[in-house]
Amino acid sequence: MKDRLGLCAALMASTALGVPMAHAAQEQAAAPAGDGISEIIVTAARHEQNLQKVSAAVSVIDGSALKEKAQSDIAQVLASTPSVQTTGQPGGFSVDVRGMGGDLPAGTAQGSAAVVFDGVYNINSQGTTVGFFDVNRVEVLAGPQSTRYGPNADGGLVNVYTNDPKLGKLEASGAFTYGNYNTLRGEAMLNIPISETLALRVAGAVLSRDSYFHPAEGEQRAQSLRVKLLYRPVDALTVKLSYQLDHIGGAGNGSNVFPVGTSKVPIYSGDSINNTGDPWAQSPSNPVNTTTASIYQHTFGGTASYDFSRAVALDVQGSYTTIHGGEVAGLNTNPGPWGTGDTAPFSSVTLDEFNKFNQYTGELRLHNGAGSKVLWNLGFYHWNYQWTYAAHNNDPTANFGPALANNVYSATATNALYGEVTYPLTDSLRIIAGLRNSWDARTNSFNNNGVATQRFTTNLSHADYRAGVEYDVAPRSMLYGTVSTGYRPGGQSSYNPTTDVLNRYQSEVNTAFEIGSKNRFFDNRLQLNADMFYYHISNYQNLDKYNGFYYQGVICTAQDTRAGCTTPTFGMGAHTLGAELSLAASLTADDKVSFNGTWLHARFNKTQGTCATVGLTAAAAAMTCPDGYNNMQTGALQFFDLAGAVQPHSPTISFTFGYDHTFHFKDGASLKLGGQAFHTSSYWVNPVQDADLYGFQPGYWNGELNARFQPANEHLSVSVYVRNLANYAVKTSVLPITQIGDPRTVGVTFAAKY
Q1: Alpha helices of 673-747 — where are they, by DSSP H?
Q2: Cα–Cα distance, 23 to 258 (Å, whole number)
Q3: CB proximity list for 227: less than 8 A, separation 6 or greater
Q4: Residue 549's pLDDT is what?
Q5: Long-range contact pairs involving 330-334 (C-beta distance under 8 Å, separation at least 24)
Q6: What residues contact 712, with CB distance under 8 A and at least 6 apart?
Q7: Which residue did the predictor score with more confidence, 132 or 517?
Q8: CA 44 to CA 422: how far, in whole Å?
Q9: What 3-state DSSP class applies to 63?
Q10: H/E element, 363
Q11: pLDDT: is 116 or 6 the higher one?
Q12: Are strands 113-117 and 156-162 parallel, antiparallel or unpaired?
């Protein structure tokens, strides 16, 4: 009977998205005897746990695979993960999970999906470009994480764990990659056991790549250095100190700090760009920005963990991040915001994006000790950042007007108390309960065209919860159900110096319902996980749109009431119904098969509350929820009714199929061949669903191939990769500019370890 129940449970299961903790496990459990699937230990729910016992959908990417495939940014790492999309931003990438994320430039607002490196959340995205070296694993978590983590991400979390120093073990490794577009990438690591209680780990990476575009625009120049010091005087106490430097240089995508000229391609509708020759070949009528920029990010961190007993442990973590640089002076003239031949408003402007950015985080957490049957955590979290943006006009005759000096200061302070407990009622039945309260303060000041500095502060607070149940149907089959909420703070958008009015937008809240099951069958040779979920989203933050910055030869000011200048602020209702299926099979000791798929039905509600938009036409005023945008060909103001529309970044179906086979040779050498096929149905990359299909991404197939040769001497290896087999240009963002993903890239990696 239990076997039948386990089989039924398998038909429901989940692609687990787990929750790491401050001192995350750095080693995965060894593979079981025989041909079975290895067990994976994650820090889901902020304690070490078998992935198959996590009552959530969790995707885990092994760090060793990143080196073999020479994956250096988060877009490459997550490219084949269903229900996850990345969007190029100034200096890095933003992430969407199950359609929830955010497309605004880094630093301007929190996304509903957060990226966390070694427990540190950064509102900016520099680490997503160069931080993927000496990585232990990447965990992708969908849905609200409010009662488990400091960052209150209502849409999901991407946790990146880098390797910690090891006591008593001298280790060294290095890898060098050469690929097309003159890609040169190197990474190295040295682990030094200073004493029985002290160890140092130093790792770094460098990247140089020519432009994907013709004429040249968007080459990458990046370097990163990470230093970690581990001190463990007694078994109960662990102290870690860390420092990381990230530098992004070059010109265009990956370095420019303003979206003008970043991966700009000819405007196109539907899939026309993939049907007219090389999508990465820009015509002379499109802007080419060869201005170089440098962004430097310094991150200092420290953690201390003490195990008082089997029942109680304490974690303390703090960090400081500072960013500076990013000045782009004298941007080249381009033919208008839509390529229509108008003079560009940015032709003679100096932009200083990070002058200066500072961020502080702190977390104090009590939780259960190792071996405790009751799993619990109770924490306090603090996050604070200050960011200054400046733009200065170098030419009084340019469109910005005389003596422009546009300075914006933004700051956010977050404090939160959170806690969660998983309590066993019986050996097979457990209940989950968690609470959180967040307090947020947002401050903005503006000094625009000589107008006296105006300062505005908005105070917000919100309570969140999680409740759930876990039931072991069989030793290797679990059913679960949860309901949880997450909160994305509201804030302040544009300021009108004429009327002294500041737009404010409401806080986004996601109430998520999820049921699922996780299962292992046939002596651990088959893993089948599945889940179904429903999101009820209130005050969906839709600030990702082009606001008519240049209309009839005159620059638009914030809240400009002219028909061509609109600054909409929406507090929309939305909902998402979805299901995920994850399958892994060990056919033999040398043959592995995997499948991961997601189905989404993500819509804005047909019945909406108040949707405020200035500059409405008579026809737009009759719409339920009008969204203003400018036609990419003519620049004319148009409106689209968002009521009942599809949410962006939400393909109906997406899935990945993978297969690996390992050949073994008599001398002990091995050759592993593998690849993945990825498919997604069509979707929109912007809330605006324009009639010209500029924001529409048609469905497509793609894939990658990988090979790794391991000589009998396991200290050496050679890997080959091919990404984007179809050489297909994926549209990642539009309005006001169009960005596309990487073309086909090939390369070889030589690696050594000691």
Answers
A1: none
A2: 36
A3: 200, 201, 202, 242, 243, 244
A4: 42
A5: 330/291, 330/394, 331/258, 331/260, 331/261, 331/289, 331/291, 332/261, 332/287, 332/288, 332/289, 332/290, 332/291, 334/260, 334/261, 334/264, 334/286, 334/287, 334/288, 334/289
A6: 667, 668, 669
A7: 517
A8: 12
A9: helix
A10: strand 349-367
A11: 116
A12: parallel
Q: How many Cβ atoms sit within 10 Å of the Cβ of residue 234?
A: 9
What is the rounded CA–CA span in Å between residue 292 and residue 289?
9
Q: What is the pLDDT of residue 417?
A: 97
Q: How far apart are CA 421 and CA 376, in angstroms?
A: 4
Q: What is the per-residue pLDDT across 674-692, written as a single tens digit (0 to 9) for each? A: 999 999 999 998 888 888 8
Tokens of 275: 């049907």
Q: What one-letter code names the amino acid at 697?
A: Q
Q: Residue 570: beta bridge partners? A: 611
Nearest C-alpha neighbor of 220 from the set 245, 246, 202, 189 = 246
Chain centre distance of CA 374: 32
Please, which residues have CB within 8 angstroms of residue 452's CB and are 6 or more apart in sequence?
none
Question: How confident is the model over 375-386, as a mean pLDDT?
Answer: 94
Task: Scan for tokens 């089948």, then name that residue.
Answer: 528
CB burial class (10 A; 0-12, 13-18, 19+) of residue 163?
Answer: buried
Determine the Cα–Cα distance for residues 65 and 571; give it in Å rounded to an integer.
41
Closest of 566, 455, 567 to residue 505, by C-alpha: 567
Output phi, psi for 275, to 5 deg. Answer: -115, 10
